[in-house]
Design goal:
Elements (H helix, E strand, L loop, with lengths): L8 H7 L7 E6 L2 H17 L3 E7 L13 E5 L5 H14 L4 E5 L3 H7 L2 H18 L2 E7 L5 H10 L2 E8 L2 E9 L11 E4 L2 E4 L3 H8 L11 H12 L4 H15 L4 H10 L2 H9 L1 E2 L6 H15 L17 E3 L1 H10 L3 H7 L9 H9 L5 H14 L4 E7 L15 E4 L5 H17 L4 H9 L9 E7 L3 E3 L2 E3 L2 E6 L16 E6 L3 H4 L8 E4 L8 H5 L8 E6 L4 E6 H5 L12 E2 L1 H10 L8 E2 L3 H6 L2 H16 L3 E9 L5 E10 L22 E4 L2 E2 L3 E11 L1 H5 L3 H17 L5 E6 L23 E5 L15 H9 L2 E5 L7 E2 L1 H5 L5 H4 L10 E14 L4 E4 L1
Parallel strand pairs: 1-5, 1-6, 2-3, 2-4, 4-5, 10-11, 28-29, 29-30, 30-31
Antiparallel strand pairs: 6-7, 7-8, 8-9, 11-14, 12-13, 12-14, 15-16, 16-20, 17-18, 17-24, 18-19, 20-21, 22-23, 24-25, 26-32, 26-34, 27-31, 28-33, 33-34
Pathway: Carbohydrate biosynthesis; gluconeogenesis
Function: Catalyzes the phosphorylation of pyruvate to phosphoenolpyruvate.
InterPro entries: ATP_grasp_subdomain_1, PEP_synth, PPDK_AMP/ATP-bd
Length: about 850
């Protein structure tokens, strides 16, 4: 084995030189002490014909004076752990085997990322890589500036750990760890005088030497030091508080200019200290956490709303698992190399499942587990929800609506059982970063190369105990701009609500066999067209609740949920079906099981709930200077008073209304493919349609269930083939339903390339569109810019001439060369020359 010299001959003699793959970590008081040993190492390595590579951190003074024979690589710590670490690995990968490396002090990493944890993580993934290729490398850290846990991780990973001192102008090296070699005097301190070395073996000299140094019993991490400074600044002058507050915002939120500026405006130093005190680990708290905190701060502090909401806004007591914990979890479970392979173009999908499995089955460190236990002790047995809060999530331009998982922890059982359930929930959220929808979303939006760190938001579930169930009275989604209008009188700027009884899970997803209440806030009692015809049928029939006895999320019928004491007036939310009740009474049938109809009439008519929601949407969107999408809950007391909890807030991605479009004059109703008043979304458009992908309702309903899923997958194949074309997808019922009896069960990624999506009602086959604007599915439509139309049969102002399509040639097998494609059900028509027009003012959409 060829030895590598330290450049200090006497030290080489004692230690036997460096072995290929040796990583040497120098603990120093002064960077000049590190510079002393680096100079000797670099000069000797150049003389010996080594390829010397210097990993230099931008904005840091160079520790190598003469760079003429050194390969300089300047990297920016501000890019974050993943980008920075990948850059280092890519540099190492491209250099020759005859290479040695010098790194700037790792203490700059600690200060740049405000984290001992991430310093250790960087070393734990870089050191083994250098060892594997047989390259010697020098690192340094500042002595007594790291926690014992961090030093232990570095000591465990490195091959050599050395203390270096300067006492009265003399340099001393004291080896602490030297792997795979030993001499009787190796671990004594050694005085260095050029190439000569004197070993300090005398007890008197050693005692005199070490008495110079500060041996702190308690070592705080860099993050804790900054947090303590922030707490101390609470009693200091305003300018100091502002400076320290900005530091905490940068550490917890990041430096994105828009969000950073909003945080400076609405958060005090005390607010930031409170947030920091509830963080587990270190790092950013992520987009979902910031959005929830920001919306709550705006409503409670803005002059126009703070008095109104003083007793209405429900306080939150959330915790945040920082992004550093996510990276540490990856590193500590040996998944870093796999993550690096997955981040490449060829490995993006190839290694995703393997990485997902690894994330789902990893272990947390004892230190983090202890903090998890404290969190669970704080909440007791109150249900909590573990939610994704990634860096890119809920941000301007990228909502990631429904792409990552959220997991309820009902929080019942022994402490160890509750801890396991909580950790499993976090693992599930981490693993969801590798699910197919998330991967495709990032890829389609050019985010696959971005640093996507996952923080966790832990929230107390809003609600109360009602018998064996736990749930909020109402929940849902609120949008400040109502882009889905079904009536000419609707004021788009008044906003809209998706409203459900119980947990809001039924509001954010396209649920099966059920309907949520759509509320236009300019006239809350106005019903959508289909709901008017049959209010009971088109209402919510099932409720999502947390079952405490079963320790799980459960869906129950409405009657089961309202039969227990709701601790408020159930008439706020609905009433028994009067017609059925009268009919039963007339014929002497027991009326106790008559369906309770959730119409929310009294809530919308007789309380100030919609007024409060309108105020929230108005003030938050005005301060964001952008439309917003808010998730909320509300709970009522016996007098009908309510408190609102803002669960989430994100910018609502919209295209705007667009310029007014001149509609074509139709000679008669049969001259167009379709026409409708209302029930469309996407603003004013005039759009050419080159292809229509049409699902034949008559043939679709005859298929067995498994074949209906196959139809969805085949639509996905066509969607890929038509990328870049102007195509319209038309089919029965609800696109994206998980129940194939209600519509084609496509995933969003299987229709994401369409320009228009059209849902068609076939009442005789019980296939109906759902006005689900505000759900995750529709958020994807808005964000992607897909125009949406719902065509309701038997509605006077709706025309759909299906026979115009059926006369055309089905070219699906010309587009997809797959003999197994079902061309009886799936039709693709060449429709060049066809155009779709819409006008918001007149509320007309037509295709001709």
């Amino acid at each position: 084995m060829d030895k590598i010299s330290t450049g200090i001959k006497g030290f080489d003699d004692i230690m036997g030189g460096l072995y290929p793959g040796d990583n040497v970590v120098w603990q120093v008081e002064d960077i000049n002490n590190y510079k002393h040993v680096v100079d000797a190492f670099v000069r000797k390595s150049i003389k010996d014909g080594k390829n010397v590579n210097y990993i230099h951190f931008r904005k840091v003074n160079s520790i190598i004076d003469d760079l003429s024979k050194v390969n300089l690589f300047e990297l920016d710590l501000a890019k974050g752990f993943e980008d920075f670490t990948m850059s280092v690995h890519n540099i190492i990968k491209t250099q020759s085997e005859n290479a040695v490396y010098v790194f700037d002090s790792l203490t700059y990493i600690q200060r740049g990322w405000y984290s001992d944890l991430m310093t250790a993580n960087f070393f734990k993934v870089t050191c083994p890589y250098l060892y594997k290729i047989g390259a010697a490398a020098y690192f340094s850290i500042k002595r007594n500036s790291y926690t014992y846990d961090t030093i232990a991780k570095i000591r465990e990973t490195t091959q050599l750990l050395m203390d270096i001192y300067n006492v009265d102008g003399s340099i001393y090296i004291h080896p602490l760890k030297v792997e795979n070699r030993y001499t009787p005097i190796l671990f004594f301190p050694h005085k260095i005088e050029e190439d000569k070395i004197t070993t300090i073996t005398s007890s008197g000299e050693a005692s005199k030497l070490f008495s110079h140094f500060d041996w702190r019993n308690k070592r705080l991490g860099y993050w804790r030091i900054n947090f303590n400074k922030a707490k101390a600044a609470l009693t200091q002058d305003e300018s100091t508080q502002e400076r320290i507050k900005q530091n905490l915002i940068d550490i917890l939120v990041g430096k994105d200019s828009k969000i950073n500026e909003m945080c400076k405006q609405y958060f005090t130093l005390a607010d930031m200290v409170q947030i920091a005190s509830r963080e587990i680990g270190t790092g950013f708290i992520g987009g979902k956490s910031i959005g929830m905190l920001m919306a709550t701060a705006i409503v409670s502090k803005s002059e126009e709303t703070k008095e109104y909401f003083k007793d209405i806004l429900e306080p939150h007591d959330s915790f945040y698992v920082g992004t550093d914990v996510f990276y540490s979890y990856i590193v500590e479970n040996g998944l870093w190399d796999l993550r690096m392979k997955q981040k490449t173009d060829e490995g993006y999908f190839k290694y995703a499942k393997e990485l997902q499995d690894g994330l789902q089955n990893g272990k947390f460190s004892e230190m983090i587990e202890e903090q998890f236990m404290h969190l669970l002790e704080y909440y007791g047995q109150c249900p909590i929800i573990v939610r994704s809060s990634s860096l890119l999530e809920d941000n301007f331009g990228n909502a990631f609506a429904g792409k990552y998982d959220s997991v309820f922890c009902i929080n019942q059982g022994t402490p160890s059982q509750r801890l396991k359930a909580f950790e499993d929930a976090i693992r599930t959220v981490y693993a969801s970063t590798m699910n197919e929808d998330a991967l495709n979303y990032r890829k389609n939006r050019g985010l696959d190369k971005r640093d996507e760190q996952m923080a966790i938001l832990v929230q107390r579930v809003s609600g109360d105990y009602y018998g064996e169930y736990y749930f909020p009275h109402i929940a849902g989604v609120a949008n400040s701009s109502n882009l889905y209008v079904w009536n000419k009188k609707i004021d788009m700027d008044a906003g809209m609500l998706r409203l459900v009884f119980g947990l809001g899970t039924r509001a954010v997803d396209r649920v099966n066999n059920d309907y949520v209440r759509i509320v236009a806030l300019d006239d809350p009692t106005r019903l959508p067209a289909m709901t008017k015809k049959d209010p009971q049928r088109f209402s919510q029939h099932y409720v999502d609740v947390l079952n405490l006895n079963k320790n799980e999320l459960e869906t129950i019928i409405v009657n089961e949920a309202v039969k227990s004491n709701l601790k408020t007036q159930s008439s706020l939310f609905g009433s028994k079906d009067k017609e059925t009740e009268e009919r039963f009474k007339r014929v002497g049938i027991d009326t106790s099981n008559i369906p309770f109809v959730l119409n929310f009439e009294r809530l919308l008519r007789s309380t100030k709930f919609t007024e409060a929601m309108r105020k929230i949407l108005k003030v938050v969107s005005s301060k964001y200077n952008y439309p917003v999408d808010i998730e909320y809950t509300a709970n009522f007391d016996k007098q009908g008073n309510f408190r609102i909890n803002i669960v989430q807030c994100r910018p609502l991605q919209t295209r705007g209304l667009g310029k007014t479009v001149e509609l074509p004059k139709l000679e008669d109703k049969n001259s167009c493919l379709f026409s409708s008043t209302g029930n469309f979304m996407g603003g004013n458009v005039r759009l050419a349609i080159d292809y229509i992908v049409f699902i034949s309702s008559d043939d679709y309903v005859k298929l067995p269930e498994v074949e209906k899923y196959n139809i969805a997958r085949q639509v996905g194949i066509i969607n890929k083939e038509l990328k870049g074309k102007n195509a319209m997808l038309m089919g029965p019922g609800r696109w994206g339903s998980s129940n194939p009896a209600l519509g084609v069960p496509v995933k969003f990624t299987e229709l994401c390339n369409m320009s228009v999506m059209c849902e068609i009602a076939y009442s005789n086959q019980d296939l109906m569109p759902e006005l689900s604007y505000g759900s995750h599915f529709f958020q994807d439509l808005v964000e992607t810019g897909i125009f949406y139309v719902a065509l309701f049969d038997n509605k006077e102002d709706v025309v759909f001439n299906e026979n115009k399509l059926r006369k055309k040639e089905n070219i699906v097998k010309q587009i997809i060369k797959d003999a197994n494609i079902n061309d009886e059900v799936i039709k693709v028509y060449d429709t060049k020359g066809l155009q779709i027009y819409s006008d918001i003012t007149q509320q007309i959409v037509t295709c001709s």
